[in-house]
Amino acid sequence: MAAERLVVIGGDAAGMSAASQARRLKGPDEMGITAFERGHFTSYSACGIPYWVGGDVAERDDLIARGPEEHRARAIDLRMRTEVTEIDVAGQRVRSLDRDSGETSWTAFDKLVIATGARPVRPALPGMDAAGVHGVQTLDDGQALLDSLDRAGAIRTEGPEGRRAVVVGAGYIGVEMAEAMLKRGFEVTVLNRGEQPMATLDPDMGRLVHDAMDGLGITTVNRAAVTAIRTGPDGRVAAVETADASYPADVVVLGIGVEPETTLARAVGLPVGPHGGLLTDLSMRVVGHDNIWAGGDCVEVLDLVAGRTRHIALGTHANKHGQIIGSNVGGGYGTFPGVVGTAVSKVCDLEIARTGLREKDARAVGLRFVTATIESTGRAGYYPGAQPMTVKMLAEYRTGRLLGVQIVGRDGAAKRVDVAAVALTAGMTVEQMTALDLGYAPPFSPVWDPVLVAARKTVAALRKAGTA
Amino acid sequence: MAAERLVVIGGDAAGMSAASQARRLKGPDEMGITAFERGHFTSYSACGIPYWVGGDVAERDDLIARGPEEHRARAIDLRMRTEVTEIDVAGQRVRSLDRDSGETSWTAFDKLVIATGARPVRPALPGMDAAGVHGVQTLDDGQALLDSLDRAGAIRTEGPEGRRAVVVGAGYIGVEMAEAMLKRGFEVTVLNRGEQPMATLDPDMGRLVHDAMDGLGITTVNRAAVTAIRTGPDGRVAAVETADASYPADVVVLGIGVEPETTLARAVGLPVGPHGGLLTDLSMRVVGHDNIWAGGDCVEVLDLVAGRTRHIALGTHANKHGQIIGSNVGGGYGTFPGVVGTAVSKVCDLEIARTGLREKDARAVGLRFVTATIESTGRAGYYPGAQPMTVKMLAEYRTGRLLGVQIVGRDGAAKRVDVAAVALTAGMTVEQMTALDLGYAPPFSPVWDPVLVAARKTVAALRKAGTA
Predict the structure, then answer these.
(1) Would B128 be classed as within a structural domain?
(2) How many whole angstroms separate alpha carbon B133 and alpha carbon B144?
(3) Catalytic: which of A47, A89, A438, A460?
(4) Sequence-ordered list of residues with C-beta below 8 angstroms from that of B1, at least 6 positions apart, any chain
(5) Chain A residues touching B380 at Cβ < 8 A
(6) Between β-strands B237-242 and B246-248, what pairing exists: parallel, antiparallel or unpaired?
(7) Are A213 and A111 in contact (CB under 8 A)?
(8) Which partner from A27, A397, B52, B262 sits 20 to 30 angstroms from A115, CA to CA?
(9) Full DSSP string of B242-254
(10) Is there a single domain that holds both residue A115 and residue A263?
(11) A448 contact residues in B (CB cutoff 8 A)
């Protein structure tokens, strides 16, 4: 019997995890694996780019978990700089273009994995393609930005010229890039379309981020929609324009977000959801297609709290998807039950975390809820280095079921959200949470952990609302 | 109608939390509250004593959450330095002794709260009461130890004399006191009866603690049972003797553990469990007694994983008990479902955490299990300051239910155990845990959180054992 043929489109986290896991389960005599990557790199941490740009991570290659040769050593036929341009679903083959030689060819598959990732949102505004305007999705993007910073640095004077960075967008990429630019010695302005930075939080919690960024010397301008990028006589970026003002800029970083890259899949009618991502079943198989799987930034995932799909581009999900797809295509078994929407990020020493639903998410799916917000510290108040932390909690009216948690604070704030992530997964009520046996010792927590304090206050809010 | 009379025995975490919560629910016209404390202090953090002794916490009073006057301001009749010497259950009254005046009196109650805490285990060995031998259970103990350190410091010479500390016991108090003594400039030897330090961990994980303490310059001697304390001509401690050796000591700290202080309760036949602690129902009412509650270090708690009671002296439980008792005696409602056995501690920058069952605990209750141990880091490997972390996980054979987690590592290791604590409470399987949506960003976690890596390896171990 001929070996089964597996084709993987996309050489980053989801695609190469799938290929590697499949290879673990099936030897080369049982399964041939071909993977296509249109860029220069495989299996790298896009999430690490802000830290490389900021100088915390010294080398680009530090972000690469596994290079092409390592994959090839495991008998994966990896085609770098080769872009899949067409999927022939009925014919079970993909057409690819070698971007260096310009040659195209067809490759047959028995099983197909689509891991085409996401592409940055790049609004069609004047000047958006000018030199000095940078996305930060890929390692190539990161290198281009670093080159741009060097150039900006080379023309520095005593005045602010040559060291003004404008970051467009105040989501997690935006705030992480604001930190990176600050570390590189730039004056940083963040232009944010929304009411507060970190729209992944409720505005009251986003306000805390705003104030903390202010304290770090980062200027955040809210309700600032970019209308144009103005260029100088040299064609490089000179300023970022909004309806109200003009912000001089030597470097512009776009942190506006991403959308699923599903051009190929949509061209052949594979099902996409309301957020533009491919729809899969629990085994990560594309809905309606027994021999096509999809995972990573190009799919929608089930939000277990909201009961509907979302698009979340995050390396940790992509790795899980790849692992599960690799198990399933390799004859094993795995499912991805969904997410609860956990995300953590930081700006300098400020930690920001969320899981579950924001107020507007809960409203959007018809949930009625109460909220409570508390302030506490990450360590016992008397222990050196104890820092303030704000925890906001949402619970469903009547049932008291936990719906979401947001945390803004410093040392030890971010990963505390994991407690809520597990509680959400388990469907716990906030009353049940008040009894959780969380680790306590003065260097690590007050005697009542901030999450427990928030749970207690949410229970009180439920009682006040006449439901408990 | 006359006001109801509540009597509370013990003025620390459980007792005063109960009194305070009862007062929140019932005004002085509805309920009279009398609390007896035999010592000098109320509502203090005994867990903070090692950090005060070590110099991280400057002042004794920093450890006091609420002093006598604050309690009295809330209309709690607090009798300091007054020891309850007898409970008359049928007569609904307690006899107390004013330790300053020597006077005794009876106080009637409608409802009684027993929060008598724990007392240090102090083996009856020669020299145990010598000057320079210190427990660290109370603030008075801490002050006496600090005085002793001053004295030891005053006779320091160029040699080691005057700065040799021996810590007896290598549980969490022992290792925390080892850090404190180290910080005070002492040469520290820890004498440990067991096979490895931190007997709250399995020996393989305890070994990691041993090695790390070694690296910190703390000498740990295992299988070293103390036989005597040898004193010098001045009557002060001179050395600690074991069967095999003699350890010169200028100061000795006892960290051997505690046992429930239930002398009063046992004298009148209140029910105690196999570990000597009072037995209560879910509302923290003493079994068989409708008007007597007990909480804190003097009770046994239900271990939700093992399905039987344990004695755990820990401020976080005591505070919860007090809160629940106060609600119940005040006409509200609260229950304490039990614990999963979470504990975190540190020695310098080494973090140690556990939750659920150790191997021997699982065996003791008839559970068959598999284990897996992994090494990972607390941050993405490429992120500055990423430190190694070892996670051991136990899961039940066949069902795959999580049974316990132990973690030894550095930055970010300890509180990761909370994820497992919630998963244990929810009765999750390790397979379910592999899909947990935990916070990921390079400064906070590798793309697979160490707990997820451990869960995956435990799933593999289950599969190998033929059960999954």
Answers:
(1) no
(2) 10
(3) A47
(4) none
(5) 45, 47-48
(6) antiparallel
(7) no
(8) A27
(9) ESS-EEE-SEEEE
(10) yes
(11) 316, 319
Q: Say whether both B280 and B315 belong to one domain.
A: yes
| DSSP track, B457-468 | HHHHHHHHTT--
For residues B453 and B350, state if they share a domain: yes
- Strands B187-191 and B164-168 come out as parallel
Tell me if A304 sits within 8 A of A404, measured CB to CB.
Answer: no
Would you give the DSSP letter of residue A212? H
Judge if B428 and B392 occupy the same domain. yes
Q: Whole-model pTM?
A: 0.96
Letter for the amino acid at A41? F
Which of B336, B345, B440 faces A316 most closely, judged by CB atoms?
B440
pLDDT digits (tens, 9 = 90+) for B47-94: 999 999 999 999 999 999 999 999 999 999 999 999 999 999 999 999
Indicate whether A376 and A325 sit together in one domain. Answer: no
- The shortest C-alpha distance from A168 to chain B (Å) reads 21
Residue type, A270: L
Tell me if A439 and B172 make a contact (CB, 8 A cut-off): no
Provide the residue-wise pLDDT of chain A in tens; the chain has 468 residues.
679 999 999 999 999 999 999 999 999 999 999 999 999 999 999 999 999 999 999 999 999 999 999 999 999 999 999 999 999 999 999 999 999 999 999 999 999 999 999 998 888 999 999 999 999 989 999 999 999 988 876 555 455 566 899 999 999 999 999 999 999 999 999 999 999 999 999 999 999 999 999 999 999 999 999 999 999 999 999 999 999 999 999 999 999 889 999 999 999 999 999 999 999 999 999 999 999 999 999 999 999 999 999 999 999 999 999 999 999 999 999 999 999 999 999 999 999 999 999 999 999 999 999 999 999 999 999 999 999 999 999 999 999 999 999 999 999 999 999 999 999 999 999 999 999 999 999 999 999 999 999 999 999 999 999 855
Q: Are B45 and B319 in contact (CB under 8 A)?
A: no
SS (H, E, C) A264-291: HHHHCCCCECCCCCECECCCCEECCCCC
Helices (H), B125-171: 139-154
In a domain? residue A322: yes
Last residue of a domain, one of B200, B229, B256: B256
Question: Residue B389 is part of a domain; what is its CATH number?
Answer: 3.50.50.60
Is residue B408 located within the same domain as residue B316? Answer: no
Q: What is the mean pLDDT of chain B?
A: 95
In angstroms, rounded to a whole number, what is the distance separating the alpha carbons of residues A170 and A192?
5
Q: Which residues pair with B133 in a beta bridge?
A: B252
Nearest to A371 by CA among A361, A359, A383, A387: A359
Q: Give the Cα separation of B128 and B120 in Å (integer).
A: 13
The label of the residue with tokens 């309690």 reads B71
Which residues on chain B are in Cβ contact (under 8 Å) with A443?
51, 346
Both tokens of A326, joined, read 């690799």
Of B172, B426, B443, Cβ closest to residue A422: B426
Domain that holds residue B30: 4-119+259-329
Q: How far apart are the CA of A108 and the nearest CA of chain B, in angstroms?
A: 32
Tens digits of residue pLDDT in B103-123: 999 999 999 999 999 998 888
Distance CA B353, CA B172 (A): 10
Number of domains in chain A: 3
